[in-house]
Design brief:
Length: 563
């Protein structure tokens, strides 16, 4: 559940911290007090777009933090799939909004907006006017039915999804083979040409690297010879300018004086080693030069071979290995094409078999859905009667789609009649905004014990209702509060009276600034707020007494109903 809310520098909110409790948390306040701002702060965690206009004037940033205490095992599993591990059962979601950007964190670790949204969706669900309107869409209606019967429906849906994947794959492969004889002959000729071209080259792995090394050497042979010849002359003994001759002369000169000083002997040995090394180097270099030849014919053949290999690599792959792998792939295609008629028939037979399997799995899914739809119909009718739909008729209409899909072939529609003698029609043609919100509320009550989301927020749930209907809605809210933590923003005293925790949102002037604050109401303050909702600006003793009685009756109703 949502344990703690912290909002700072958001619109009219300077800073508020709220501790929410289990069950039904009611939020009330004057029109314009900032209830929508508070709701908007939670929507920011759910991924709503940010703007610098949200930041309180003269503030550097705005901050929203939601601390959840997670106990629902399904919610914990969903978070685990997102690589989110609650610390001591807690998850902290925060979003800091600055000029032009926002910083999102989950348990102190930076995250993307998408990650934040996915995590929040496991913990929090906001039901406002938009969510009520989504009930008009058939996809949403099907999703509600699937959620109701998920124990059997979801496994059946998975089987349909897998069968659909296999069917689609086979269908795509069959479509790719759909060609006339002329096209097939062109493809055969093209494949044969590519395969022969690669085969004729007789490629060897690593051959290109070896040839390129040799080519570099031969293409620079003259430069190599000229440079080495110069080095040979500079280090040789053939001329007085050669290093060998110079070192030899130095050695001879040095030997004249070593007889007079024994300390010079190590130096003489070093110079002798230099002379020996230089002599060996010059001899080996001479032998290399003698063996270095340039065969123009050999060079031409090497160049031609490299051009061939590089041409094949440009067409079929970056390496010889890639080219050889490409040939193997084309050979497989060629084999299939040569057996075209045989393979085509096999694919047609496979597609037919897979279609039969898909149809069977889709029909099985449909039967399970129809089974649960009858249960859901009865519960929705009863739930709507509980919400003061006095004479309501509701059913779920099934139609079969023309094409297969990964979630089955069911095309469903919720049909309703709210007045005696009227035929059932789709929701969008019958219900008002207030009726639609009650239908959604009835569905939420039915799904309450099946839903993994612990915290539900209802906004505008009281749209278009009053009197007896409002009382019925309040009772239903209390039912949902037995299975969920519920946060409800309302203007109706009947709903507010059912609160397990009652919060007041108000705004006031602080100096020259308007500030929104929220605080919990104790028993007497809660009764006074109920009186305000009942009587308006002037609260008389009679109104106060009425509010007190309403609070007591609501408590008795809860105690009686949930014992």
């Amino acid at each position: 559940m949502l344990a703690h809310l912290h909002v700072k520098n958001l619109a009219l909110i300077e800073e508020i911290e709220v501790e929410f409790g289990p069950g039904l948390n009611i939020l009330t306040g004057e029109t314009g007090a900032g209830k929508s701002i508070l709701l908007g702060s939670m929507q920011l965690i759910l991924g709503a777009k940010t703007s610098k206009n949200m930041i309180r004037e003269n503030a550097a940033y705005a901050l929203v933090e939601l601390l959840f205490q997670v106990e629902n095992e399904k919610a914990l599993e969903a978070l685990k799939e997102l690589d989110i591990c609650p610390e001591d059962g807690q998850v902290l979601l925060s979003r800091k909004i600055m000029d032009g950007r926002s910083i999102n964190k989950i348990n102190g670790e930076t995250s993307t907006v998408g990650q934040m949204k996915a995590a929040a969706a496991c913990l929090l669900d906001i039901h406002g006017q938009h969510e009520h309107q989504s009930l008009l869409y058939q996809d949403k209606q099907l999703a509600i039915l699937d959620a109701y019967g998920k124990e059997k429906i979801l496994p059946a849906k998975e089987k349909v999804s897998q069968a659909y994947k296999e069917y689609s794959k086979c269908k795509t492969e069959l479509n790719s083979m759909n060609m006339d004889e002329e096209q097939r002959n062109r493809e055969l000729a093209f494949l044969e040409f590519e395969i022969k071209e690669i085969e004729k080259a007789d490629l060897k792995p690593g051959e290109d690297e070896e040839l390129e090394a040799q080519y570099r050497k031969m293409s620079n042979a003259k430069l190599i010879i000229d440079s080495l010849q110069l080095v040979h002359n500079l280090t040789g003994y053939e001329s007085k300018e050669g290093a060998g001759e110079t070192v030899g002369e130095a050695l001879r000169e040095f030997s004249h004086v070593t007889q007079y000083d024994s300390e010079l002997l190590p130096l003489a040995e070093t110079l002798t080693s230099v002379d020996s090394l230089l002599n060996d180097f010059n001899r080996e270099l001479s032998a290399y030069l003698e063996n270095l030849t340039f065969d123009e014919g050999e060079f031409y053949e090497m160049e031609r071979r490299l051009d061939l290999i590089n041409g094949l690599k440009a067409k079929y792959g970056h390496t010889i290995e890639d080219v050889l792998a490409y040939r193997k792939l084309q050979e497989e295609k060629l084999e299939k094409l040569r057996k075209y008629e045989e393979n085509l028939q096999e694919l047609k037979d496979s597609l037919k078999e897979l279609e039969n399997i898909l149809e069977k799995k889709s029909d099985e899914l449909s039967e399970i859905r129809k089974e649960y739809s009858k249960q859901l119909e009865r519960k929705i009718v009863q739930g709507l009667k509980d919400l003061n739909f006095l004479d309501v008729d509701f059913s779920i209409d099934f139609q079969k789609k023309k094409n297969y899909a990964d979630n089955g072939t069911d095309d469903i529609q919720y049909l309703i009649s709210t007045n005696p003698g009227e035929s059932q029609k789709p929701l969008g043609q019958i219900v008002s905004g207030g009726e639609l919100s009650r239908i959604m509320l009835a569905l939420k009550a039915i799904l309450a014990d099946r839903d993994q989301i612990e915290t539900l927020i209802f906004d505008e749930i009281d749209t278009g209702i009053s009197g007896r209907t409002a009382q019925k809605v309040s009772e239903k809210m209390a039912v949902i509060g037995q299975h969920h933590q519920v946060l409800c923003i309302t203007h109706l005293p009947q709903i507010a009276a059912m609160a397990d925790s009652h919060f007041e949102i108000e705004k006031h002037l602080q100096g020259t600034e308007t500030i929104t604050q929220i605080h919990v109401l104790e028993e007497n303050d809660s009764i006074r707020e109920l009186a305000r909702l009942l009587g308006g600006a002037k609260i008389t003793p009679a109104v106060l007494e009425n509010a007190k009685e309403m609070k007591e009756l609501a408590q008795k109703q809860k105690n009686t109903r949930f014992k």
